[in-house]
């Protein structure tokens, strides 16, 4: 059974491990990381997936400006390889987008 929950501080080590495994050690040097620098992910929209007693997926959502317009940056999105092709990533993304819409966000 897969459970989606809001990201919490205690998830941080498992999230970092999952992101390192998914994107490699150079993940913090990527262009998308430059966009996230100086911003904090929105806790009310950032989620984790739990399954089999461990964290198996994560998606983060960040507030941004595109020119002068508020938008949200969705990502990174990562799923443990043992749980890929089970709909975990899709469930995380759909729920993050549903929550964003519920908060009145217009652009992701």
How many β-strands, per DSSP?
4
Evaluate the radius of gyration: 14 Å
Query: Main beta sheet, described?
Result: 4 strands, antiparallel
**Gap between N and C termini:** 28 Å
Number of helices: 3
The proportion of residues in beta strands is 25-35%
Low-confidence stretches: none
The global form is globular
Q: What order do the SSEs take from the amino end to the carboxyl end, as H and E?
A: EHHEEEH
Summarize model confidence as the mean pLDDT. Answer: 91
| Range of helix content | 25-40%
How would you describe what is shown here?
A four-stranded antiparallel sheet has the order 1-2-3-4, with helices on both faces. The chain has helices spanning 12-23, 31-36, 88-102, and strands at residues 2-6, 47-51, 54-66, 69-79. Strand 2 and strand 3 form a beta hairpin. The longest helix is centred in the C-terminal third of the chain and has 15 residues, at 88-102. It has 108 residues and is of the alpha+beta class. The termini are far apart. It contains three helices and four strands; from the N terminus they run E-H-H-E-E-E-H. The mean pLDDT is 91. Helices cover 31% and strands 31% of the residues. The radius of gyration is 14 Å and the shape is globular.
């Amino acid at each position: 059974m897969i459970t989606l929950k809001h990201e919490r501080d205690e998830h941080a080590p498992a999230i970092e491990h999952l992101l390192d495994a998914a994107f490699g050690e150079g993940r913090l040097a990527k262009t998308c990381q430059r966009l996230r620098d100086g911003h904090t992910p929105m806790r009310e929209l950032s989620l984790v997936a739990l399954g089999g007693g461990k964290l198996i997926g994560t998606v983060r959502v960040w507030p941004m400006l595109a020119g002068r317009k508020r938008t949200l940056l969705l990502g990174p999105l990562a799923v443990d390889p043992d749980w890929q092709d089970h709909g975990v990533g899709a469930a995380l993304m759909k729920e993050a987008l549903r929550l964003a819409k519920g908060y009145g966000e217009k652009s992701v």
